[in-house]
Structures are given as C-alpha cells and as structure tokens.
What we know:
- Helices cover 57% and strands 10% of the residues.
- It is built from twelve helices and five strands.
Amino acid sequence: MEPETLVRDHTVYACVMGSRAFGLATEGSDTDRRGVFLAPTPLFWRFEKPPTHVEGPADEQFSWELERFCELALRANPNILECLHSPLVERVDATGRELLALRDAFLSRRALDTFTRYAHGQRRKLDADVRTHGAPRWKHAMHLLRLLTSARDLLRTGVLTIDVGEGRESLLAVKRGEVPWPEVESRMNRLVEEGQEAAARSPLPAEPDRRRVEDFLVRVRRTSALQPDLYDDDVRDVVRGAVR
C-alpha cells in the first residue's frame, strides 16, 4: 500500500498546527497540517512494515502511524502533545475520538524534561545567531517564548493550552523585532525558572498512563485485524495469503 493511500484512506485524526493553531497567524502564514493514520493490521504481518510516518501528500502535511504517535506522546514529545490539543481539528473518526479522549493519559511531569530539552536546543541556535549576526531569528524567538509559557502553564495546571490568547500581541512584537534581545532573554530565563518551580508541585503524575494507552492500541489493532473487508485489495491479498 502506498504511503499516500494510508494518509488518504486511513487517517483517524487530522488537525492544523503552527501559527494558526497557536493564535499567532498573520497574513501569509502557512497552514501546517498534522495527522494520525491507522495502518491496517494485516500490513504488519509482512517483512516490510508500514511506514511510521508519511510526509505529504499536500504541502506542509505530515502524519504519523498511530503506534508511533502514541510512543512519542508517552515520551512527552512537545510537537506530538500539542498536536493532540490543537483547537483546529479537520478530521476525526471514532478511533480518533478515542485517541483524543486519552489526552490526559499522555500528560506527566516528564514534560519538564522534554519541553526544557527542546527549548535548550532552540536557545543555543538563537544564541549562535546573535553571536554571528548580531540578532536572533525573531520568529524562532517568539515561538520559543510561546513554548516555554505553554510548558510552565501545563506544569502549573495539568492542562495543555496551545492558543496564546491574550499573549498574542506581545509575542508578535517579538517576531517583528520590536523587543530588545536582552529583554527577550530575560523573559526566557524567567519562564524556565517558573517551569521548574511549577514542576515541584505540579498536579500532573510522575509518569504517563502507559497501560491505558496500550490497551487502546491493542484493541484498535485487534478490531482492524477482524475487519479486512474494510480495506483495499492490497490488504485483502495479505489476509488471504496468511490463511492459506
């Protein structure tokens, strides 16, 4: 089965991410689409397994196979967790709704490490830009501030909110280069400290609910295996070959 077919015919959840989901879109902003597809279980019976992710077929579109998506979410990958909480859902079926109902199962205090580690990587790039060019890439600085704010608030409240709300104008001022870099640095450092303080008394559990997520995945795989007639000829050929 072609990767594009998996995305076209087997997507269980699709959303818009990036600036549009964050409430930071301006004229000319791209539309970044992210999704989750469920590869039919019979495809895993081959030596050649289905892809864990697919880029495209549209521009700025990227999708993960359900199992890979869940693995990354359990690790508190920032991009994956934010995808689950996008306010701009474009497509969702029954399996996708079950996945969304599991959002809290993926959240844990691991977010402190993963969000902070990602932020450190982005901060090093910004510092390198300042040393080389005298200024950071302001759009990246804006998004780093947004991420640090989101992480702090998640650790404080146990809820991941990705729309910046009332913070929109102050963040866009950073993007436009209207805020001096030392002030931006100070805001970043303060957010990191506040995130660490929040983690110490966070309502989030220490670890995600891996068992709950795994039960969901096993149930979905079993259902898929028992319903080969829902799939195309490629999958039915696999099933027929397996039972000969």
